[in-house]
Amino acid sequence: MVEKKYFKFLDVLNVIAMVSVVTMHVNVSFWNFANLPYWRVATFIETTCYWAVPVFFMISGATLIEYRKKYSTKIYAQKRIVKTVVPFLFWNMFGLVYQILLHKQSISIFQPLRLINGIFNNGGNQVYWFFLPLFAVYMAIPVLSIIPDQYKKKIYEYMVAIAFLTISVLPVIFKILGGNFPEMLKTPVSSGYILYILLGYLATHDFHFSVKQRVAIYILGILGWLARFSTVLDWSIRDNEINNTMGGYLNFPTVFYAFAVFTFVQYEVSNMKWYKKINTNLLKMVSGASFGIYLIHIYFVEMLPQIFNFDYRSLFWRTFGVLGVYLICLIIVLIIKKIPLLRKLVP
Q: How far is the first Cα of the chain from the last one, in angstroms, to the nearest whole number?
């Protein structure tokens, strides 16, 4: 068995991305349009943190595609089931019970067909949508990983190119022009979040960017963020409702922005003094809690403003609330991880 290579910057990205996800959910006031200062600030926060979800997929690509060098596909499948399928089922069930107890949802939701539908269509909690595309890419990785090393780079680059064109660029252009992009044109072997899985692998294992190339990536990233921020702001005010034409995790502004953040942490942050002083064991522990934080944080995002009578639109809640929710969830997850019967629920 080949020893697992450790990429410290991926753990740093993992932690920052999880904080960004918490920030977006605390910043829920973004989704209630109002042409007021608080909503403009909420738009800035939402678009600034939007890179986080794509980067989680990139981290998966960076760490999982080469699993065959460490263990068999059978073990790979077993690991994925334990780490994701078990929590997916449990926390969706938990979410459904939560809906019944706190939101007066009918107990009839536990009828067999409604229960299955609820579990697989985010009935437990909308934030669990992330599981389904994650399962999809997990099922694709054994096929991606079997490509011989000498062909990986060229094949992956080709797949990224056609995915970027047919998933990230053309659909947005058609939408802006008022047309409908023909979905059948999307290539089956390179659809959905596979784009980020491949980008994460290539960026970590094959790409080596010069200073000029990195500057170009950062400029594209800034332009991507600016395109998302300015269009959401201006077009929503024009339409008097949220206009998310340039939104979506797979649209090209987000691809530019997410890849720029990934690259910046990989090359620039990793050379900063504070980064080199980070205790690796502590970093691994905090990074290892991110998935558990994702699973439970939304309940604290909802309950804390009610318990302490916070205005969810206030800047105080959308700043210090993020820190509070993250730290509370971090502590809870680290404690649960110490309990043998429960730690598999927050892997």
A: 23
Measured CA to CA in angstroms, residue 9 lies from 198, 211, 236, 325 at distances of 18, 18, 36, 24
Model confidence, pTM: 0.93
Nearest to 299 by CA among 32, 27, 94: 94
What residue numbers bound the domain in which 30 lies?
8-345
Does some domain include residue 3? no
Q: Are 160 and 199 in contact (CB under 8 A)?
A: yes
Residue 1 — very low, low, confident or very high, per pLDDT cuts 50/70/90?
very low
Please report how the helices 37-48 and 315-336 are oriented relative to each other, as an axis angle in degrees rounded to 10: 40
Tokens standing for residue 270 = 């990793």
**In this structure, is residue 193 part of a structural domain?**
yes
Count of domains forming the chain: 1
Helix, strand, coil percentages in the chain from 3-state DSSP, rounded to 5: 75, 0, 25
pLDDT tens per residue across span 24-77 = 999 999 999 999 999 999 999 999 999 999 999 999 999 999 999 999 999 999
Amino acid identity of 64?
L
Q: 287: which 2 tokens? A: 């990074």
Residues 6+ positions from 186 with CB-CB distance below 8 Å: 166, 167
Residue 188 lies in a domain: yes
The verdict on residue 2 lying in a domain is no
Region 124-151: mean pLDDT is 93
Token couple for 259:
């890849």
- Tokens coding 92: 């969706």
